From TrEMBL:
GO cellular component: plasma membrane
Principal subcellular localisation of the protein: membrane
Bilayer topology term: Multi-pass membrane protein
Name the UniProt record assigns to this protein: YitT family protein
Transmembrane intervals: 16-36, 42-70, 82-102, 108-126, 174-191
PANTHER family xrefs: UPF0750 MEMBRANE PROTEIN YITT, UPF0750 MEMBRANE PROTEIN YITT-RELATED
InterPro entries, alphabetized: UPF0750_membrane (IPR051461), YitT (IPR003740)
Biological source species: Palleronia abyssalis
Subcellular location: Cell membrane
Keywords: Cell membrane, Membrane, Transmembrane, Transmembrane helix
Amino acid sequence: MSETANHTFLDDAQGIAFGTFCCAIGLQVLTFLGLITGQTAGLAVVISYLSGWSFGAVFFVVNLPFYWLAWKRLGPVFTAKSLLSVTILSVLTEILPMGFAIERLNPALGALIFGALTGMGLLALFRHGGSLGGIGVVALMVQDRTAFRAGHVQLLFDLCLFSAAAFIFPLSVIVWSLLGAVVLNLVIAINHRRDRYVAT
């Protein structure tokens, strides 16, 4: 049974709005601390830091190749919801700083806040048949076809990304960033299970 089988249009709209908003706040915390994250968002953050380009624009472009894969493997509805989610998040990350500023935040606490908020946001998107593209698409495909959970797929990718980032960023940045990524992926691994949580 599909998790989105009994969701109405308004249910999905609320889920996507909530999910992207949580992720946008999480990314605001992340960038304030100068930390990085995993998946394609992490790749976009690294490119943004190194190039000075806008995260929103880089994130949108990085995800483009994955839409073809999503369309072929997961269908047009999933692809459309993912494209919409990525677009909304890209816009939110540009406008959120206009009305929300962080003055002081401990890196350890910030990593936990980022992981929890972004994990909840991604979970909401997954439950409503969408994603933030990229590795999330691949992770959902693997989980749907094997017993390997989506959160574990994402965590493996994140470990590879952080290993490469260790040559660019200070060790403290890597440690706190990894903490946030672990929290995020544990939220997904524990809560996004079709054998346990099914929409009714």
